[in-house]
Write a structure and sequence with these properties.
This protein is an alpha+beta fold and about 625 residues long. Among the domains are: about 430-525, Immunoglobulin-like (Sandwich); about 530-635, no CATH class. The chain is about 30% helix and about 15% strand. It has helices at about 40-65, 85-105, 110-125, 150-170, 175-190, 205-215, 220-230, 260-280, 280-300, 330-345, 350-365, 410-420, and strands at about 30, 35-40, 380-385, 430, 435-440, 445-450, 455-460, 470-475, 480-485, 495-500, 500-505, 510-515, 520-525, 530-535, 545-550, 555-560, 570, 585-590, 610-620, 630, 635. The strands form three sheets. Strands 3, 14, 15, 16, 17, 18, 19, 20 and 21 form a nine-stranded antiparallel beta sheet that branches. A seven-stranded antiparallel beta sheet has the order 2-6-7-8-13-10-11. It has a five-stranded mixed beta sheet with strand order 1-4-5-9-12, with no helix packed on it. α1 (about 40-65) runs antiparallel to α12 and α2 (about 85-105) runs antiparallel to α3. The longest helix is centred in the first third of the chain and has 24 residues, at about 40-65. The relative contact order is 0.10. It binds zinc ion (ZN). Zinc ion binds near residues 330, 331 and 412. This is Glycoside hydrolase family 127 protein. It holds the Pfam family Glyco_hydro127C. It comes from Catellatospora citrea.
Length: about 625
């Protein structure tokens, strides 16, 4: 650990709209009421999310009967229930997204919608607190009869998270009361003398810890500890994907790396960080941090995406990161942000903010269409062919090549993206014992108090990530020195910082500006935004000998809309720096390769070569102008 946890224990706090509220840690998270994104790259996406995506999610969930499953008309579930076992969780995640959105920006209509959905959900709750629309009623399977695939505790976990989001962004505890009864039921059923079992899909763990944080109810934390202790004993049934799929192959404390189904492993890791922080178990915290660090070092794509096996949506072995088979599910990216954020709050290590930024610009921003109503589920880094899109074949969309899809039968990613975007401002900055830290650069207004109670305000304005200049003006300050820390991304060698025009020393992973700030002080951070070549570890065989191009936090790609440029034969001259005159280009050549009867010989084929400047675009922009071929990793000449 970089530093001891220094912020004193805090009491349960339902104000301010923070997604994660640890009782100790190096950093104190700021809430929606303290940080507002006001313009630029993310404000535009937040506006679209709050308007189009939330409506879109509701329309589809109504149309498919997922919300209706909670109502008396279909018997609160019963045999007429529609959708997969986890569809309840999508309604909960949508409510969580709506809650952060109403916390971000008051919206009486959306607020009423949450109230309506809450009443619907409450009406489906059994007398003993159990709540799931697919199990336990006449004509349905028995409760907890299929822990591997039933997703009952998974859905409960999302309900708990949604209820905490609602409570932290409003004075309304109706959903929190439903969640408490669910959690009480789970504690009865799975407590020390109850079922000795875990759910096939982790998620209840972070949900229980957050509900503990919101209510102070110790038994919820104890139950999370029990679930974490029970995982890894292979109590779930044997399965063709192996126990690693469920993270049930080895105990959490013995694992060295994340493995198996990526979203499952990452949700579990988030819950384990929460648990370790609340129980003061620094050994457990170091264990899960080491697992995540090793996963970053060996099992993560350049985009920050995780999961390279389509078959089981899973992590593969170390360095098995094929570009054209990148699964990199949107939800895995968001779950990795959850883990990174929790680790950064606990340890203060700024490098986790680099990880968050990488995922935001290259997975989250890629996942959603400009209309806020279309989505990628998976994120390939190499699209070879133009995906033929058959009418009505919605599932075929959204995996690359063709348009983003309006919906999926498994539509986990949509509401996940919505809750991430609605709560995004809370990831911009945090407070520590010395002052404030800025982690993400965006147009944002910050108004908060320091650890000693002094009020401080900042106005940040920037064209980032298109431009590297970030201007920060102090808008509120009280006498006495404090430290403003600005993250220096790992790629930003040569960054400069001035305060009121005076250059400041810059080194390490953040610029530390300690002074008696006054209203009107101006800080300017200049990050170098020249496009740069990036080379992979040679153990990533699939892209050995290739380069990628990055510009600031943004991964670029070569894209051929309609397949007009032959990306199969493209090679680039890595000895000539990428040019950045009105758009990034690299020197490269394409080759008209002859057809052969057998694709192997003592020498490669030689065809007509054409030297050209190849334009690159941000990876998050790909496939927005129609079906295209695309590659991030470019072979060199
Ligand atoms: Zn998903």
């Amino acid at each position: 650990m970089e530093a001891e946890m220094t912020v004193a224990a805090r009491t349960a706090d339902l104000t301010g709209g923070r997604p994660v509220v640890p009782s100790r840690g190096v950093l104190r998270p700021l809430g929606l009421s303290e940080v507002r994104i006001t313009g630029g790259f993310w404000a535009q996406r937040q506006a679209t999310n709050g308007r189009a995506t939330l409506d879109h999610g509701r329309e589809w969930m109504d149309k498919l009967g997922w919300t209706g499953n909670f109502t008396a008309e279909v018997g609160h579930g019963s045999a007429e229930r529609r959708g997969r076992e986890f569809s309840d969780s999508e309604v909960y995640k949508l409510i969580e997204a709506m809650s952060w959105e109403t916390g971000r920006q008051a919206d009486p209509a959306r607020d009423a919608e949450i109230t309506e959905l809450t009443a619907m959900i409450a009406s489906a709750q059994a007398d003993d607190g159990y709540l799931h629309t697919a199990f336990g009623r006449s004509g349905q399977r028995a409760r907890y009869g299929d822990l591997a695939w039933g997703h009952e505790l998974y859905c409960a976990g999302h309900l708990l998270q949604a209820s905490v989001a609602r409570a932290r962004t409003s004075g309304d505890d109706a959903l929190l009361n439903v969640a408490r009864r669910v959690a009480d039921h789970v504690c009865e059923e799975f407590g020390p003398t109850g079922r000795d079992a875990v759910c096939g899909h982790p998620e209840i763990e972070p949900g229980l810890v957050e509900l503990f944080r919101a209510t102070g109810e110790q038994r919820y934390l104890d139950q999370a500890a029990l679930f974490v202790a029970r995982r890894g004993r292979r109590t779930l049934p044997r399965h063709e994907f192996g126990w690693a799929y469920f993270s049930d192959d080895i105990p959490v404390r013995e694992a060295k790396v994340l493995r198996g189904h990526a979203v499952r492993a990452l949700y579990l890791a988030a819950g384990v960080v929460d648990l370790a922080v609340e129980t003061g178990d620094d050994e457990l915290l170091e264990t899960v941090a080491a697992q995540f660090d090793r996963t970053l070092a060996r099992r993560t794509y350049l985009t920050g995406g995780m999961g390279s096996r389509h078959l089981d949506e899973a992590f593969s072995d170390d360095f098995v990161l094929p570009a054209d088979r990148a699964y990199s599910e949107t939800c895995a990216g968001i779950a990795a942000i959850m883990v990174a954020w929790r680790l950064m709050l606990a340890t203060g290590q700024e490098r986790y903010a680099d990880v968050i930024e990488r995922i935001l610009y290259n997975v989250v921003a890629t996942a959603i269409g400009d209309d806020g109503r279309s989505f990628f589920y998976a994120h390939t880094l190499h699209q070879r062919s133009l995906t033929p899109v058959l009418p009505g074949d919605v599932e075929q969309l959204g995996f690359g090549g063709g348009p983003r899809a309006p919906w999926f039968e498994v539509s986990c990613c949509l509401a996940n993206t919505a809750r991430m975007l609605a709560s995004l401002s809370t990831y911009v900055a945090s407070a520590d014992d010395d002052g404030l830290r800025v982690h993400q650069y965006a147009d944002a207004d910050i108004d908060t108090t320091l650890a000693d109670g002094r009020r401080v305000g900042l106005r940040m304005r920037t064209g980032y990530p298109d431009e590297g200049t970030v201007g920060i003006e102090v808008t509120a300050a009280e006498p006495g020195p404090w430290t403003l820390a600005l993250r220096l991304p790992s790629w930003a060698a040569g960054a400069t910082v001035t305060v009121n025009g005076q250059p400041q020393p810059v080194s390490g992973d953040r610029a530390l500006l300690r002074r008696d700030f006054a209203v009107g002080d101006r800080i300017v951070l200049a990050l170098p935004m020249r496009p740069r070549f990036t080379r992979p570890d040679p153990r990533i065989d699939a892209v050995r000998g290739c380069v990628a191009v990055e510009q600031g936090p943004v991964v670029l790609c070569a894209e051929s809309v309609g397949g007009a440029l032959d990306l199969d034969s493209l090679r680039v001259d890595a000895g000539t720096d990428p040019a950045a005159d009105g758009g990034v280009t690299v020197r490269g050549l394409t080759e008209e390769l002859p057809e052969r009867q057998w694709p192997y010989a003592d020498a490669g084929p030689v065809g007509q070569r054409t030297t050209r400047d190849v334009p690159l675009v941000p990876y998050h922009r790909w496939a927005r102008s129609g079906p295209s071929t695309m590659r991030v990793w470019l072979p060199t000449t």
